[in-house]
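Interim report, section 4.2 (structural modelling).
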Amino acid sequence: MAAFILRRVVQTLLVLLVMSFVIYALIGLMPGDPVDMMIAGNPGATPEVVAALRKIYGADQPLMVRYWHWLSDALRGDFGFSRTHSQPVLEVLAPALWQTCQLMIGSFVVSVILSFALGIVAALRPGGWVDGLISLCAFAGISVPVFWLALMMILVFAVELHWFPASGIANVGDGGLRDRLMHLVMPITTLALANTGAFIRYVRASMIEVMRMDHVRTARAKGAGEGRVVLIHAFRNALIPVVTIMALSFGVLFNGALLTETMFAQPGMGKMIYDSIQGNDYNLALVGLLFATLVTLLSNLAADLAYGWLDPRIALA
Amino acid sequence: MSATTDTEIVAPRTEAAVGVWRLRWRRFRGHAGGMAALVVLVLLVLFTLAAWPMQHFLGIDPNATDLFARFEPPGPVHWLGTDDAGRDVLVRLMVGGQMSLLVGLLATVIGGVLGLFIGIVAGYFGGRVDAVLMRFTDGMIALPLLPLLIVFGAIDLTKLGFSQDFARSGAAGFWRIIIIIAIVDWTAIARLVRAATLAIKERDYVRSAKASGAGAGYVMASHILPNVATPIIVAFTLTVGRVILLESVLSFLGFGIVPPTPSWGNMLNNAQELVTTAPALAVYPGLLIFITVIAVNFLGDGLQHAFDPRSQR
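Predicted structure of the assembly:
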């Protein structure tokens, strides 16, 4: 087990290293370079000055050299300065991360609860009208464009009904717990609804499969009540593949978070990445993307470990 | 399709080939959701194609702006009214639909071919080739898709050696979004094809082809490819739905189809302001995306049901 974890951790780090280079190279292909940004507001910059600046900041060096400099700085904890925020990158990152954690964990919990409840109910009578209705909702959840769902939520609950604020994280001059929670309701609901569709399908499929198994029939034959059969005998076994897939979908959740944050103007990781790419904030975009990759890789790692932990029959080799 | 079920072995080969597809069609017809989806999709395609008669016979240009006729309500000239630049909403929805559907299909085809190639090669050769290709595939799956696509969308094409004129043209925007989506969305098909190839390559007819001296390329093209087609049709369908969603997201964020060319995604570009001034404009394009993708997903479900003899309803 320890050897397995170690190997997977080393693998994860390697992928992260490779990705850091790929992302660095991609960012280099975005319009302009840091020196262009510096002189953008300065019509007096002569070509000589520009060349000198390029030399000072190393923008004239080949890609590999620049990457090496960035990497050695990064390993010492120096990720550079954010152009648009005029702050060190890490100081911009930390609050954004906290914001995204609230959104992602909140909606993850909501969609897990919803999908377990609906998925199990649908699996009790596959093909029945309840199942049909739940499956239709699940399909709707998979098929809806998240940003449009957010738009419709704003239209209905903010513009028409005035129940919830349309954007931001707190009202000016308020910022109490209730105020902050009110601002989180719509983003969390939107993201949760978009995710629940896929989750319901996993839970339903897994439950239907398990309900056909011998041990479920045995439990029924021995006189266990239907509730006990479903929740204890079937659900426990159906959980294994479902948990893995749910952990794996954390990356997809991040895609959704990017859109929800952008739509509801929440200053989280997703919006930060989007804004930094739009604003040619290279250092911030680079670290943001790398961090997003890390989160996805870690969730994959967690999925692998959860698999072995939930089902001792699986030997982790 | 060649022998895959027991009945075919008994029946003469050519008739059996027809029989499988007829059987599948019959099973598909019995799937209410799939049939409804098919009808909806045909109607949607007809709707987008109606842009042509609308443009030519009613003389409505989807890109013609008229700042004196902004936010006009639905009327005899503009059936669904006009948008914030005075352009006809209905015709833009039709043309935008063509864009969205075309991007969905083309990106899926290109990504599908890529996935097919990687999957067959990995499955057929196995060993080291398989390990490298599948680790690569796993790596791709592990990436944060949307942020990466945004970076791809922001890339300055002139830095890749394209001319200034091309980089600014509408064609560049169109092909860029197709290529970048195809680059990231081939993994599901690759894995599926690999699994199918692994099963097929041990069959007797493949072995006998190899024994008679057929090269790897020939075996892959004429024995394996036709037999992995069936399982990937469903995956292909589901990919189209996902790609249409991705296109709409990227165009909405401003990294996809570039205005004035409409797409369902970029028609929502300034929808955040529209929700207060002209909510209908924020509703239509998204609703069409929603209907299209849900229909595509139901179609996939129906095909799955039709192709999988074990599936019961």
